[in-house]
Design goal:
The complex is a heterotrimer of chains A (263), B (264) and C (320). In chain A, 66% of the residues lie in helices and 1% in strands. In chain A, helix 5 runs antiparallel to helix 6. Chain A is built from nine helices and one strand; from the N terminus they run ααβααααααα. With 264 residues, chain B is mainly alpha-helical. Chain B has three domains: 36 residues; 83 residues, Helix Hairpins; 101 residues, Cytochrome c-like domain (Cytochrome Bc1 Complex, Chain D, domain 2), CATH 1.10.760. Chain B is 58% helix and 1% strand. Chain B is elongated and about 90 Å long. Among the domains of chain C are: 43 residues; 168 residues, Rieske Iron-sulfur Protein, CATH 2.102.10. The chains are: A mainly alpha (263), B mainly alpha (264), C alpha+beta (320). At the A-B interface, helix 2, strand 1, helix 3, helix 4 and helix 5 of A face helix 1, strand 1, helix 2, helix 4 and helix 5 of B.
Chain lengths: 263, 264, 320
């Protein structure tokens, strides 16, 4: 055996070893390979990037949020000053805060765009109904993130918008007054309200959003994405003729309704 | 029938999977390239907005004054994506309908959104063959857009800010000097909570515009009478009485109103 | 990949008690180092003796055997040949019904016990957490009487914008504003109207519809914190800039979305000083000033009706 070739193979094997080690013990590499090399419809394109763009915006929020949390003090007596400190003193603090502030807006805009795309593509239809529901649940969670984060700078706008927001919750029938009281941590907005909003904003709500995003992505990978409905190459389009894949019993043309379309 | 439809949908999905398997492209790198470019754009936009926020005043101040729970002169505004709700609350200006704006409509919208896949069970995905969907989408987008726009441009009457407007009024209406005290009183007395004057003030309560009130030439005595008891001279007027100002102040207001002959 | 076991024969050392003595010796050395040198010496001796015996014991067991080197595990093929991804279409998630005669048949008892114990855990963990988060909702906050200064600061018939600390212990966050009017005496007792400036629509700060006399501002430090008094002439009542609610001078709604009149504070006269206490909600007020008939209700959140059919939306209220 030529030893040079043998050595190269050995080095490759050594480089592979950690991956193999991981794969053997977790199967993660295989999962990643499946995720990356799975087939998507050939006519998917820019329209389908809105979802991942939304995810990117959310990840920006996570990253910048973690950094902001290192300097922010959720206490009515120092919250405002700590935000000023972030803005004025911390190196590039203004940038991180600006990214977090406007990342939130971009995140929400993208959610709406993504939702509009899915609606216009009719991509919420069978078998993707559940994924639509998960997505719709993500929308109010994202809005709640915006609402709970709005109080944190503790300036006039923050305080009064939160007063109104909490009272809006309070007008819900029956449980509303209790919900408002829960959000305020008592009958009046006080010191505990701010830390409560802080906790909701950076632990409970992001946790819930992350979990639902995981489920959302799992369903996307499991069910695939829809082709644009106008595409003549749309995956799963109706065929006038015999099945494209002969021998596949399931595709055997059962008599279908009138929604046939000439290809 | 339903079972037939179910069967059809299953077959169609099976066909989708086969099509994708046969003709699809690998997610990486073909689709992921698009995703990555889009994500880059998103991150650039976010960073760009942060820069614009920091270096210009286009996006508003980075921090308002510190919270003052005892303030009497502040108008809170939500973040822009709640403007639609903010304006909805202004639309429902009757006490009995408050609950519609606060929880009713948002809840209904959310339930409708959740129910969409169960309302529209057809297999058809092409837009032109989904007229109801198109109409619904356009209506929702339009109304959200209009509400957000109205919310963003909604004006409110804040005494301190209106007072700063008085010199502009003097200029635009060519007000005589003796009308200025009345103008100041007018600006700080909440008249513009309901009325409008040269584009200032809240109009959602539907009170008439007063920019050209003087051109009706009703006379100072009438104006004073009207301010004292609006419904006495103007049957059914919902305007409250301003009699508590006292005659001297009412005279100032009346002079100002009579001097307001409209912008020249 | 198959995990590769040893070559047929287990090569475990025979059980031995010497390591225990060895370990005790080491402990003695370490303790001795701190406590006293002789103890360390004894420990060293014990360690050496037992160590020797242990080594002898261990090597005795292997003396005639050659411990083989185990082949390395893994190889390049394991990653590429990794478990094939599960096809996306194969989804079965139901709990399988065991076949009859199986070694572990379905045990209703075990299932119930597992789920039951799980709920016990969930309960033990959740109850304190929930109690901790929700308790503030049901706690009655105490309301101190807030001293607003001598009643001579309040001119009869004039509204005064009064800001004060509602809860001095909480600090500035509890600063509140009330519109206070001295109504003069009724039956030799001073009468005041103390309107909260929280809009009854959604809680925005209500403003006086009339000029404020900033120059006549009085600042006062009472035992319950700083109080500031600014006279005003709200001839047009009060207005809320947020959503356009309007009130008259008694706090009655005159226009816009507020669902009731402005809330009011209870007031007390203590040694010639004005003090305020709890707030209460008001549906409407008949009459004016000292002789007004106030339709009083328990304090309720903004936007909640206290009378009319809509009050049934809010049958229960958290304590305030």
């Amino acid at each position: 055996m030529p030893s040079k070739r043998n050595r190269k193979e050995q080095m490759l094997a050594a480089a592979q070893y950690p991956l193999d080690w991981l794969e053997e013990r977790s199967g993660l590499i295989g999962g990643l390979r499946y995720f990356l090399f799975r087939k998507v419809p050939g006519d998917s394109g820019w329209w389908h990037t809105l979802g991942s763009a939304t995810l990117t915006a959310f990840l920006v929020q996570l990253g910048t949020g973690v950094i902001l949390a290192m300097y922010y003090k959720p206490d009515p007596n120092s919250a405002y000053e700590s935000v000023q400190h972030i803005n004025n003193d911390v190196t590039l603090g203004w940038l991180v805060r600006g990214m977090h502030r406007w990342g939130a807006s971009v995140f929400i805009i993208l959610i709406f765009f993504h939702m509009a795309r899915v609606f216009l593509f009719g991509a919420y239809k069978y078998p993707r109904e559940l994924n639509w529901i998960v997505g719709v649940l993500l929308l109010p969670l994202a809005l709640l993130e915006g609402f709970s984060g709005y109080l944190l700078p503790y300036d006039q706008t923050a305080y009064w918008a939160t007063v109104v927001g909490i009272n809006i919750n309070g007008t819900a029938p029956f449980l509303g007054p209790f919900l408002a009281s829960f959000l305020r941590s008592g009958s009046e907005i006080g010191a505990d309200t701010l830390s409560r909003f802080y906790s909701l904003h950076m632990l409970l709500l992001p946790g819930a959003i992350l979990g639902l995003i995981g489920l959302h992505l799992y369903l996307v990978v499991r069910l695939g994405v829809s082709s644009p409905p106008w595409s003549s190459e749309a995956a799963g389009r109706d065929r006038e003729q015999a099945p494209a894949v002969p021998g596949s019993g399931l595709v055997n043309p059962a008599p279908r309704g009138v929604t046939k379309r000439p290809d | 029938m339903p079972s037939r439809r179910l069967e059809e949908r299953r077959i169609a999905f099976q066909r989708y999977k086969e099509d994708v398997k046969r003709d699809g492209k690998p997610f990486y790198p073909y689709a992921m390239f698009h995703d990555t470019v889009m994500s880059l754009v998103v991150v650039c936009v976010i960073v760009g907005l942060a820069f614009v926020w920091h270096y210009t005043s286009l996006l508003g101040p980075s921090l308002a004054a510190k919270a003052d729970p005892g303030t009497t002169s502040f108008v809170p505004r939500p973040d822009w994506y709640f403007y639609f709700l903010f304006y909805l609350l202004r639309i429902f200006k009757w006490p009995n309908s408050v609950i519609l704006g606060t929880v009713g409509i948002p809840t209904i919208l959310l339930i409708l959104l959740l129910a969409i896949p169960f309302i529209d069970m057809r297999r058809e995905r092409r837009l032109l063959r989904r007229p109801i969907a198109i109409v619904a989408a356009v209506l929702v987008a339009l109304s959200m857009g209009v509400l957000t726009y109205k919310g963003a441009t909604a004006k409110e009457a804040l005494g301190a800010e209106l007072l700063a407007d008085v010199p502009n009024w003097v200029k635009a209406e060519k007000l005589p000097a003796q009308a200025v005290p009345g103008a100041k009183l007018f600006a700080t007395s909440g008249c513009l909570n309901c009325h409008t004057y040269l584009g200032a003030g809240g109009s959602q309560l539907g009170a008439p515009d007063l920019s050209a009130e003087g051109s009706k030439n009703k006379g100072i005595t009438f104006q004073i009478q009207h301010l004292k008891c609006p419904s006495c001279v103007n049957k059914g007027s919902p305007m409250p009485s301003f009699a508590a100002f006292g005659d001297a102040n009412l005279r100032k207001l009346a002079i100002f109103l009579e001097a307001s002959k409209g912008p020249k | 990949m198959e995990p590769q076991q040893g070559q047929g024969k287990p090569h475990l050392p025979p059980p031995s008690l010497w390591p225990i003595g060895f370990a005790i010796g080491i402990v003695c050395i370490l303790v001795g180092l701190i406590v006293s040198w002789p103890a360390a010496a004894v420990g060293a001796l014990v360690t050496v003796v037992f160590g020797f015996l242990w080594v002898r014991d261990v090597t005795g067991g292997y003396r005639h055997e050659d411990a083989g080197i185990e082949p390395a595990v893994g190889g390049p093929e394991s990653a590429t040949g990794g478990a094939p991804a599960i096809p996306a279409d194969r989804g079965e998630a139901a709990m399988p019904e065991p076949a009859p005669g199986e070694r572990f048949p379905r045990s209703v008892f075990l299932e119930g016990a597992t789920l039951g114990l799980g709920s016990v855990i969930a309960g033990i963990v959740t109850v304190p957490i929930l109690g901790f988060t929700i308790a503030p909702v049901f706690q009655h906050p105490h309301h101190d009487e807030i001293d607003l200064g001598p009643i001579t600061n309040f001119k009869e018939g004039q509204f005064v914008i009064t800001t004060f600390l509602r809860d001095p212990g909480e600090g500035e966050i509890s600063r509140r504003t009330a519109y206070v009017r001295n109504n003069g005496f009724i039956d030799a007792k001073p009468s005041f109207t103390v309107l909260s400036n929280r809009c009854a629509h959604l809680g925005c700060p209500v403003q006086p519809n009339g000029p404020m006399f900033d120059k006549q501002k009085i600042e006062e430090t009472t035992k319950t914190g700083d109080v500031s008094l600014i006279p005003t002439l709200p001839a047009g009542g009060f207005g809320c800039p947020c959503h356009g609610g309007q009130y008259d001078q008694e706090g009655n709604r005159t226009a816009g979305p507020p669902v009731r009149a402005l809330d009011r504070y209870e007031f007390y006269i203590r040694n010639g000083r004005l003090a305020v206490g709890r707030t209460y909600s008001v549906s409407h007020v008949d009459g004016a000033g000292a002789s007004a008939k106030i339709h009083k209700y328990k304090e309720t959140g903004p936007g909640e009706h206290v009378d009319g059919p809509e009050q049934w939306f809010y049958p229960l209220q958290p304590p305030t």
